[in-house]
Specification:
110 residues, mainly alpha, 85% helix, signal
């Protein structure tokens, strides 16, 4: 009986530990968003706060785009909203510089 209780206790302890590790692992959307935010930050020389704000924006974008139930219209609208938020976050010279790099700009809004 003691062995059964000990075995169940160990099993429970290891399953809780494994579950806690899964929750702490960053999602793929989070990793991709950080990478995109780092690209725009490096290209435009943004500060840490702007980098964090863009990372959250891009994580939300990636999460919505990866959802299989998202319609084409919603994806198009999301692109428009992301572009508007980027434009609102940057000053004129930064936006002009970003628009000249069309590959990066398109990657960020789609």
């Amino acid at each position: 009986m003691k062995k059964i209780i000990a075995a169940l206790t160990l099993l429970l302890a290891f399953s809780i530990n494994a579950n806690a590790q899964d929750k702490n692992a960053p999602s793929s959307a989070h990793v991709k968003a950080k990478k995109e935010a780092a690209e725009i930050t490096e290209f435009l020389g943004l500060d840490k706060i702007q980098n964090e704000n863009f990372a959250r924006l891009f994580e939300q974008k990636i999460t919505i785009l990866e959802d299989v139930n998202t319609s084409a219209e919603r994806k198009a609208e999301l692109s428009r909203v992301i572009e508007a938020k980027i434009r609102a976050s940057l000053d004129g010279s930064q936006m002009e510089k970003l628009e000249k790099n069309t590959t990066l700009f398109e990657k960020l809004i789609h």
